Amino acid sequence: MYQLLATTPMGMEAIAAKEIQTLGYETTIENGRVLYNGDARAIVKSNLWLRSADRVKLVVGRFYATTFEQLFDKTKEIPWENFISENGQFPVQGKSLKSKLFSVPDCQAIVKKAIVERLKRAHGKQGWLTETGALYKVEVSILKDEVLLTIDTSGAGLHKRGYRLAQGEAPMKETLAAALVLLSNWKGETPFIDPFCGSGTIAIEAAMIAQNIAPGFNRDFASETWDIIPDGLFDEERTLAEEVAEYDKEISITASDIDPKMVEIAKNNAIEVGFGDIITFKQMNVHDLSLTGEKGAIVGNPPYGERIGERKEVEEMYKFLGELIHKYPEWSLYILTSYKTFETLIGQKATKRRKLFNGYIECTYYQYWGKK
């Protein structure tokens, strides 16, 4: 049994925790991370299925240290040979905050040396370790003198789903886009509209959620070549993921943007992931948006009006969205923006608000639930 840690941006811990619980594991939430216990299969399932987490790491050790000697000794006590193969590559990265051991290069060098000593003793080696095998990225993270040692099981961040051929200048991460859809509770039974689609990320993530497609089905992970992962386990879980996917499920997703270039990019990204025929793309001004049908969900990340001259335009747009949901009360509206007076412009208080970060911009996710 291993202790695992899923990293998330601030504000998204509970969303990732819920996903991990759905996979069958009990969770503990800390700032920017979710901790849980699981076996090798948990590592595989987490990487394949987590939509809102950034990475899945293996927790190898956790202890307090205020001197380099303590850091070395306690790191060396850990049975690294149970995780890293004899010829494994293990570069060490680090970070330190509010701690006596604040020199990150020194901490990295000491942790590296301690692991080398431990592995040499465990494998009865003299001289250098070859480090030609699988990659085990070790991280030493020190916060208020508490040392956390982890190994990254994911490789490239989990937001790298493999479908984004191109993007705009301020693309939203796939993990955040998925979180917005998960928070809307949209499952594909009603129409879905993103009127500010950019490179199509929200619409594509929505389609993957509705058809129950594992977000990691199309990529590789660092831990695939590890000795602690039984042979064929990744293939087995990919086959299971393929079996539960609902590729034939009828869904209605429309994605539009005022910029024809972005619509073209979004279309190509959707084709890359196999949603070319499922998502309808349109070049359209949001003011031309009209709603039909009983109910549905509008989920979007509109321009925030950060640039001079955009403000009036953005305010008009927000007012229009307010008129739209006033006219169609069965529709739900979910908007991520950093605009402080958003609710005033919409003309009503949100049913629920959530603080989220889009990159480094602090935003609020305003949720207006449609009438049942």
From TrEMBL:
rRNA-binding recorded as keyword: no
Matching Pfam families: RlmL_1st, THUMP, UPF0020
Keywords: Methyltransferase, RNA-binding, Transferase
Alphabetical list of Gene3D superfamilies matching this protein: 3.30.2130.30, Vaccinia Virus protein VP39
Domain THUMP: 42-153
Membrane-crossing segments per the record: none
GO molecular function, one term: methyltransferase activity
One BP annotation, GO: methylation
InterPro entries, per the entry: DNA_methylase_N6_adenine_CS, RlmKL-like_Mtase, RlmKL-like_Mtase_CS, RlmL_1st, SAM-dependent_MTases_sf, THUMP_dom
Domain of life: Bacteria
Record protein name field: Class I SAM-dependent RNA methyltransferase
Organism: Macrococcus armenti
